[in-house]
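Bumping my old thread because nobody answered last time. Still need a sequence for this structure:
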């Protein structure tokens, strides 16, 4: 993320310096003429000075016009940069909410597995709804490839979970229910990982040079981030253990 220029541009500084030098030089000549009695200065002021002043004034006007255009261009770039940052922040915050909702929905469904009197087709529909909200995010507007992969992974897992949860409408063996519960909880953890990455993206954007906002907390941002760090660490450790178990046999 590029940093916006918060100082005057070199063109502005140069134009100001040039104008000051011209005005100062004319004042010095006037002072020397008045107090030192330099006749050649007086003659210069009477004959050639108006033409020189007009020429210098024309150059100064051109430089000033260029400085104004450059300044307007810089302000426009800064404005667009801030608008782009604001849009990225809003997307990161939206992703946080979407991942949070998906993770909580999966955990709720997983807790219900094994309990009687559940309407499984409605719970499967809830999983499809959170999946649809994730897929509604334009992939071209997601600034990080890793986060985009997590969105796709969560969407595929949510689709699978919706299908197998709907199958619980018919009685299943406890081993089958346990397998479905494990799959839904694994999807929940994938969604928590997405929340972790989206939170990191928001924090990074807020720390950029053009940001005027603070990370948006659900409750307390630091406490939430610490909890997400723990989830991330457990997720990585389980992935490593799984890879070790699936190693060469």
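Sorry it took so long. Here it is:
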């Amino acid at each position: 993320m590029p940093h916006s220029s918060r100082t005057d541009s070199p063109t502005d500084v140069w134009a100001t310096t040039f104008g000051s030098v011209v005005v100062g030089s004319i004042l010095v000549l006037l002072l020397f003429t008045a107090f030192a009695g330099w006749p050649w200065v007086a003659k210069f002021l009477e004959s050639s000075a108006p033409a020189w002043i007009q020429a210098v004034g024309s150059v100064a006007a051109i430089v000033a016009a260029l400085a104004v255009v450059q300044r307007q261009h810089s302000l426009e770039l800064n404005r667009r940069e801030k608008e782009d940052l604001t849009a990225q922040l809003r997307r990161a915050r939206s992703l946080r909410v979407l991942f949070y909702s998906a993770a909580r929905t999966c955990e709720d469904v997983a807790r219900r597995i094994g309990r009687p009197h559940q309407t499984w087709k409605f719970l499967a529909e809830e999983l499809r709804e959170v999946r649809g909200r994730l897929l509604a995010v334009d992939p071209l507007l997601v600034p990080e490839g890793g986060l985009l992969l997590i969105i796709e992974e969560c969407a595929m897992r949510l689709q699978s979970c919706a299908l197998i949860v709907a199958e619980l409408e018919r009685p299943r063996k406890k081993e089958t229910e346990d397998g479905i519960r494990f799959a839904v909880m694994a999807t929940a953890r994938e969604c928590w990982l997405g929340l972790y990455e989206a939170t990191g993206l928001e924090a990074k954007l807020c720390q950029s040079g053009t940001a005027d906002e603070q990370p948006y907390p659900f409750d307390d941002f630091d406490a939430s981030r610490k909890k997400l760090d723990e989830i991330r660490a457990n997720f990585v450790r389980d992935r490593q253990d799984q890879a070790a178990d699936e190693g060469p046999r």
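The chain has a mean pLDDT of 76. Let me know if any region looks off to you.
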